[in-house]
Specification:
Length: 139
């Protein structure tokens, strides 16, 4: 996928569909989290390693745009990249594909904070380096 170097797969579970059998919009937020955590496992040592260093990464904004419905049992590829590292902030961007067709896209914005005080802190250099490494692998 152009511009993305990482993807993970999810399968639409029955519980994630609405009365019309379509994946509920809130399920996409869960799948964003699944993709973020998987990205962190590969590039930054996992979310636990961030927490063990006394840092939390709070979600500050979410944007999603739907192009086509997903339904029960669909297998989706969630393409994920981390970008726009500035100060205490960074962003993840997502593209949801089914059989190569884009069905949704979105982003989540995050801020790094001290785990105890919840005060903003600069994104650590090791995390910025992980983002640079991942970005260098894009097609």
């Amino acid at each position: 996928m152009e511009g993305f170097s990482f993807s993970t797969e999810v399968q639409v579970r029955f519980a994630e569909t609405d009365a019309q059998g379509i994946a509920h919009h809130a399920a996409f937020l869960v799948w964003c989290e699944v993709a973020r955590v998987a990205w962190l496992d590969i590039y930054a040592g996992g979310y636990k390693s961030i927490q063990e260093r006394g840092i939390e990464a709070l979600t500050t904004a979410v944007a999603l745009r739907y192009h086509s419905a997903a339904v029960f049992h669909d297998r989706l590829t969630v393409w994920t990249r981390c970008c726009d590292v500035r100060g205490a902030r960074f962003r993840y961007e997502y593209r949801f594909d089914r059989d190569g067709e884009r069905i949704a896209e979105g982003s989540t914005d995050h801020a790094t904070v001290d785990a105890r005080s919840r005060r903003p802190i600069r994104v650590p250099a090791w995390f910025a380096d992980a983002v640079a490494t991942a970005s260098s692998k894009t097609s």
